[in-house]
Amino acid sequence: MAPTPERYAKIRRVLSKRQPTLTVLMDEVNKPHNLSAIVRTCDAVGVLEAHAVPPKHGTLAAFEGHTYDATSGSAHKWVRVNPHADAVGAVRALQSRGFQVLATHLSQRSVDYRDLDYTRPTCVLLGAEKWGVSDEAADAADANIVIPMYGMVQSLNVSVAAASILFEAGRQRLAAGMYGTPQLSPQALEALAFEWAYP
Ligand code: SAM
């Protein structure tokens, strides 16, 4: 069915703010509500596509629909999640595409997440609920970042950490005018508008 003019205008408006140079890599995030909440935040901030290493007990197909729950608010329709076989391989693949990879990981070289420049092509690496980011993936990343904590509990829920960091990235990008000018090429924007309008 053809979209209404209003619907098509909304699709174009959203795509004109998409940030192809901002993404996340979810390393074995295994709870559907966390995956769904992260993808929903990605949509809100304008992440074009996300990346994930499926949990070891899952399959790549798990990222093609049925691991999302109502928490996603249908955001997974608008943010593609690309599967990867392993975290270190995914980090290297993203770096070879020009992304700085920031691992959310406590280490000797960790810095406050607000001290990074998110106007650069950036991928935020998020860890599994139980184990966090592996040392190997954290070592392969360009920097290790942490959200300072002042409470009794040592870590945040992964989707809350993702939202905090992505909205800091969004704040910096807004200040730099990156939501004011389309970041997608006119051809890519038209192609995606057609895809979204006629799913
Ligand atoms: N036991 C795990 C560990 O030692 O890393 C805790 C993992 S935490 C529940 C799940 C994920 O949330 C982390 O891998 C990271 O991606 C993110 N996270 C949680 N708290 C964070 C913080 N204070 N700073 C940065 N990322 C955080």
UniProtKB/TrEMBL annotation:
<dbReference type="InterPro" id="IPR029026">
    <property type="entry name" value="tRNA_m1G_MTases_N"/>
</dbReference>
<feature type="domain" description="tRNA/rRNA methyltransferase SpoU type">
    <location>
        <begin position="22"/>
        <end position="166"/>
    </location>
</feature>
<feature type="binding site">
    <location>
        <begin position="127"/>
        <end position="131"/>
    </location>
    <ligand>
        <name>S-adenosyl-L-methionine</name>
    </ligand>
</feature>
<feature type="binding site">
    <location>
        <position position="156"/>
    </location>
    <ligand>
        <name>S-adenosyl-L-methionine</name>
    </ligand>
</feature>
<feature type="binding site">
    <location>
        <position position="104"/>
    </location>
    <ligand>
        <name>S-adenosyl-L-methionine</name>
    </ligand>
</feature>
<keyword id="KW-0489">Methyltransferase</keyword>
<protein>
    <recommendedName>
        <fullName>tRNA (guanosine(18)-2'-O)-methyltransferase</fullName>
        <ecNumber>2.1.1.34</ecNumber>
    </recommendedName>
</protein>
<keyword id="KW-0808">Transferase</keyword>
<keyword id="KW-0694">RNA-binding</keyword>
<comment type="function">
    <text>Catalyzes the 2'-O methylation of guanosine at position 18 in tRNA.</text>
</comment>
<dbReference type="InterPro" id="IPR001537">
    <property type="entry name" value="SpoU_MeTrfase"/>
</dbReference>
<dbReference type="Pfam" id="PF00588">
    <property type="entry name" value="SpoU_methylase"/>
</dbReference>
<keyword id="KW-0820">tRNA-binding</keyword>
<dbReference type="InterPro" id="IPR029028">
    <property type="entry name" value="Alpha/beta_knot_MTases"/>
</dbReference>
<feature type="binding site">
    <location>
        <position position="147"/>
    </location>
    <ligand>
        <name>S-adenosyl-L-methionine</name>
    </ligand>
</feature>
<keyword id="KW-0819">tRNA processing</keyword>
<dbReference type="InterPro" id="IPR022724">
    <property type="entry name" value="rRNA_MeTrfase_SpoU_C"/>
</dbReference>
<dbReference type="Pfam" id="PF12105">
    <property type="entry name" value="SpoU_methylas_C"/>
</dbReference>
<dbReference type="InterPro" id="IPR033671">
    <property type="entry name" value="TrmH"/>
</dbReference>
<comment type="similarity">
    <text>Belongs to the class IV-like SAM-binding methyltransferase superfamily. RNA methyltransferase TrmH family.</text>
</comment>
<keyword id="KW-0949">S-adenosyl-L-methionine</keyword>
